[in-house]
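Reminder to self: tokens first, then the designed residues, so the page reads top to bottom the way the pipeline ran.
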């Protein structure tokens, strides 16, 4: 039996996959798409006929499963008349939904068709004839059974149709319903219905993946009425069939069958009733479209779409578990239903309160910038939050925040640093030359790892979870109470949640530095491992949402690259809070005229994936080409914490220094600096550092685009392909005059355009 179900599942999944790919092409070709409007959450037109796969896939996979079962002698099937009614009604609604997806039908026409196909079940003796004690009611009169059954079927069909408002909701709820029914029918030995549930799950899972994880303008597809109507009809059939008595003995399979059937469709049906009553109370037509469904309300309360999906699916599971436990404890069905209603109303009241709080905050945020400017004008003390202790200065991130701090302190601000530390011995004394007061909180790696996993459950970026700490929150509260800062700077997006929790939005600067979601997107494209790509894609989406949140709720978000600002502007509805403050650099007073013509240097914090990728790319693709023509060439990787994978490549030609105390002294005698970076965001300090030291640079167009003053063959060399990159390196190594020209022009450009004082002017204004 299990093998038969697995074969049927695989058949349904494979067939659904190929059908969906074909439907996507047809929908794009003929413009059969769901266009965005005021009620809808998507931003671009999306194909809307994903539900077209449901009937063909279900029919084919059920047929395969039945054939295999009969061939193996597992089971002989005998179809009842209600099964034929199910087939006839499903095909009818499938065609009606298909027509509505292609050319919208009148609501009255769909209502008549739904009434007719709903009547098929009671006519075939498939009906709700006993409420099993709900409100003291047991057996229903035949005429009332007919009317009630027709009402329930139409109710479920439209509930599934109406709850299909966000990605994965209708299909996700339906997968859960089918999984429960598959187990229940299997326990009863009703394997035909188990097979139907398993085959429907296969189809829904494939659709769910396209619907939830497909990109708009790519492989994303919506269900459409052809899917939601037939899905609702099949669910109605299965839940009504489950609560029916055994037609041979007349006895019920379980005395809680009606409770289980009701519990499975509780969330969509309760929401339909609530929405209809709400419209009636406000004098609107009961079937007029609006944005008052449960998923709309959760999004308005501040939840992301993916989190909304998770909340509703979890609520459906909790309701089912609660109802079954309550029944097992002897609670009457009537009381269980009343408790369900009370819990649903309380939940909605809580959501309404969250909506009021969120909308009040949004309305207050309308004049955030004005209030920030007023606060900044009076500010004397600034509290800076950093995710890692800013000494030693072994990375571009700490170099930037320290130089920002130096400039702010020079302008007369008193600076209070609150920072994580890992090794237990932070250089507090040295840091006090930059910050007036320094407070630290130890960050444990185990706790950080656990919080990272928990952040996924809350649909928050993993890196924000990694730096989530109750100890840090307590320390920050103590510092605020003691120091009374006027302004706050969160260094990097991962520290933004602390300021968000404090509610000091109108006194906060989010030092994003880079558009991290853009970096993750580029990193993801370069990952060969499918699991890594999947994880990077999830983190990218979570980071983008956090960036969008920061742009919406904070008055000043600082980035170092105009390209990053443009990227986030296209991703957000609230781009006005972004400010450009590029990196600066302090030039050496007199670049050394003497150099080693065979020394090539790469500079960067080697903890980061983009620097590891760049160094490895040079070693594997570029350096061998240089060695063929310049056998004495040596490649130096200068930067903190190189990974084991790079250290294993060290040789007499590849020198890995690790962290160095004096970067300029280490690289000043190099012939050139290379920056073959293909995954990056913002301005790369390595380029500015090299030019400020008087060294020529060969770099990729990706990072050249962030520094508009760069000109190929004037103050640098810009190349994309490995061969051309290697050739330009060789030209510099073999032609001293070219090297001198590039070095002098690069030094002049940095000296003229990238002083820290100029770049940080007005940072908190």
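Designed residues (765 positions):
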């Amino acid at each position: 039996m299990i093998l038969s179900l697995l074969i049927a599942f695989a058949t349904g999944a494979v067939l659904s996959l190929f059908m969906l790919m074909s439907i996507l092409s047809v929908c794009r070709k003929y413009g059969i798409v769901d266009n965005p409007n005021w009620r809808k959450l998507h931003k671009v037109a999306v194909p809307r006929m994903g539900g077209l796969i449901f009937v063909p896939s279900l029919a084919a996979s059920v047929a395969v499963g039945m054939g295999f079962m009969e061939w193996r002698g597992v089971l002989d099937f005998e179809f009842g008349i209600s099964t034929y009614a199910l087939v006839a009604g499903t095909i009818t609604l499938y065609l009606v939904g298909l027509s509505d997806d292609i050319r919208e039908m009148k609501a009255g026409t769909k209502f008549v068709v739904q009434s007719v196909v709903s009547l098929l079940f009671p006519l075939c003796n498939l009906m709700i004839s006993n409420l099993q004690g709900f409100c003291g009611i047991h057996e229903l009169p035949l005429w009332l059974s007919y009317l009630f059954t027709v009402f329930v079927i139409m109710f479920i069909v439209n509930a599934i149709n109406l709850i299909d408002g966000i990605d994965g909701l209708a299909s996700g709820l339906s997968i859960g319903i089918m999984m429960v029914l598959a187990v229940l029918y299997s326990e009863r030995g009703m394997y035909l219905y188990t097979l139907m549930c398993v085959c429907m799950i296969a189809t829904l899972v494939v659709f769910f993946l396209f619907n939830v994880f497909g990109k708009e303008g790519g492989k994303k597809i919506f269900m459409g009425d052809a899917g939601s109507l037939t899905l609702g009809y099949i669910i109605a059939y299965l839940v009504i069939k489950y609560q029916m008595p055994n037609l041979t003995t007349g006895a019920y399979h379980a005395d809680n069958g009606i409770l289980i059937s009701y519990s499975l469709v509780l969330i969509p049906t309760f929401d339909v009733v609530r929405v209809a009553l709400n419209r009636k109370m406000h004098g609107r037509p009961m079937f007029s479209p609006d944005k008052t469904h449960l998923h709309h309300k959760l999004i308005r309360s501040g939840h992301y779409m993916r989190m909304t999906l998770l909340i509703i699916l979890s609520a459906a599971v909790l309701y089912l578990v609660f109802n079954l436990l309550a029944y097992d404890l002897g609670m009457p069905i009537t009381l269980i239903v009343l408790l369900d209603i009370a819990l649903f109303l309380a939940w909605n009241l809580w959501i309404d309160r969250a909506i009021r709080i969120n909308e009040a905050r949004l309305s207050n945020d309308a004049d955030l910038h004005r209030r920030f400017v007023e606060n900044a004008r009076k500010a004397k003390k600034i509290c800076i939050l950093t995710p890692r202790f800013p000494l030693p200065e072994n990375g571009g991130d700490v170099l930037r925040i320290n130089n920002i701090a130096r400039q702010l302190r020079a302008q007369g601000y008193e600076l209070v640093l609150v920072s994580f530390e890992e090794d237990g011995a932070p250089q507090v004394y040295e840091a006090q030359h930059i910050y007036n007061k320094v407070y630290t909180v130890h960050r444990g790696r185990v706790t950080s790892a656990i919080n990272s996993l928990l952040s996924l459950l809350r649909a928050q970026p993993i890196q924000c979870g990694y730096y989530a700490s109750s100890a840090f929150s307590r320390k920050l509260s103590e510092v605020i109470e003691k120091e009374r800062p006027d302004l706050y700077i969160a260094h990097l997006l991962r520290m933004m949640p602390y300021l968000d929790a404090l509610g000091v939005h109108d006194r906060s600067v989010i030092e994003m530095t880079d558009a991290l979601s853009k970096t993750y997107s580029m990193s993801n494209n370069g990952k060969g491992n499918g699991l890594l790509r999947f994880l990077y894609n999830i983190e990218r989406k979570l980071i983008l949402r956090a960036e969008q949140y920061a742009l919406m709720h904070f008055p000043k978000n600082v980035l170092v690259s105009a390209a990053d600002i443009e990227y986030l502007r296209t991703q957000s509805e609230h781009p006005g809070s972004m400010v450009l403050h590029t990196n600066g650099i302090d030039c050496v007073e007199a670049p050394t005229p003497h150099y080693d013509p065979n020394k090539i240097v790469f500079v960067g914090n080697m903890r980061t994936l983009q620097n590891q990728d760049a160094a490895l790319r040079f070693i594997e693709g570029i350096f061998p080409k240089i060695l063929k023509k310049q056998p004495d060439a040596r490649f130096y990787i200068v930067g903190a914490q190189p990974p084991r994978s790079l250290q294993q490549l060290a040789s007499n030609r590849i020198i890995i220094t690790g962290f160095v105390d004096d970067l300029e002294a280490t690289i000043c005698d190099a012939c050139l600096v290379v920056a073959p970076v293909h995954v990056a965001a913002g301005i790369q300090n390595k380029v500015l550092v090299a030019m400020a030291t008087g060294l020529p640079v060969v770099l990729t167009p990706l990072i050249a685009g962030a520094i508009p003053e760069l000109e190929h063959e004037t103050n640098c060399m810009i190349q994309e392909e490995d061969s051309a990159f290697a050739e330009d390196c060789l030209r510099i190594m073999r032609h001293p005059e070219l090297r001198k020209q590039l070095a002098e022009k690069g030094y002049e450009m940095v000296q003229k355009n990238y002083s820290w004082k100029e770049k940080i002017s007005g940072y908190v204004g």
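Residues 152 and 236 are 8 Å apart (CA to CA).
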